[in-house]
Amino acid sequence: xxxxxxxxxMSGTSLDGIDAALVGIEGYGEQTKVExxxxxxxxxxxxxxxxxxxxxxxETSNVExxxxxxxxxxxxxxxxxxxxxxxAGVKMEQVAYIGSHGQTIYHIPMAMQHTxxxxxxxxxxxxxxxxxxxxxxxxxxxxxxxxGGQGAPLVPYTExxxxxxxxxxxxxxxxxxxxxxxxxxxxxxxxxxxxxxGPGNMIINEVVQSLVGIPFDKDGMIAGKGCINExxxxxxxxxxxIMQVPPKTTGRxxxxxxxxxxxxxxxxxxxxxxxxxxxxxxxxxxIAYNYETFIAPKVAIEEVxxxxxxxxxxxxxxxxxxxxxxxxVMTQEDIGYTSASKEAIAFAVLANETMHxxxxxxxxxxxxxxxxVLGNITPFTRKS
Length: 384
What we know:
single chain; 384 residues; alpha/beta; 15 helices; 12 strands; 22% strand
């Protein structure tokens, strides 16, 4: 089979940076073979990060801002794609296509009184295609939603291709939001299921950003010095999303800046260390609760593989190992991959499936009525 170069681009709800993975892919479907060639994480500078946060907030967002930001992020994504090629010594014209998740601005997984089930990711694919002179696959979530799904999580398909084994595995991503993919041993795709467990790094990051002025709690050092406030933790665990039956998805609209501003105002008596410790345990405990309530009755969990920025938070990892004594808790690095590149690789693989006309949503993850081909294709004819 011919190997092709594909770039995957990802910017998550934690707003750490734009991840760009250059991937060598052979085949498609269950015969897919994936090799990571190179990876870069391009930092999102503070002015752009603040624009994204402002655009995601119902109280501060406006259509002019989102219109402009769509193009600004398109240029940023194109720059990340060019950067990973330069680092790898691969010419842009050697890349077959790019898969871009975009930046989620708002996500409505369930219809409400005045809103339809819908989602919005920006980072204009036409800008990416023109700047890189490469076809782009983008807007992956919307076809799943059109088919009755929640549009997320989408990574379970690629996790099934790459991580299936002779063990019952949970692939736990801890980005801005926590999400888990359950891959039973010797499984078929229809047995895979996934959902968002609740907050990942989002609340932790907002707390330390607001109180200390730093973007995240490096290695969990601030939380590691604090004491957990059990009353606050109980109140947080009582939030209905945690107990909601899957399939379910969430995001910044529930656990973002507005949530944290209110949290800080109502808990001024707590030190930053104690508040950080409590919200870090909230992430860990919400994961453990979802495992025990929604996974363990179906699958005896043997291995938990943690990915995303949260896997580098040692305080959080210590909490998870204590809360999940029945499973071997590992990181992506422990099994030869990297937490940083995992989701960018996934969107390269999803783009490859789209370009081959293959359905790549997982019904047990999104709740869609049927399997569908994901993504919109923005073509580009290279200049002669």
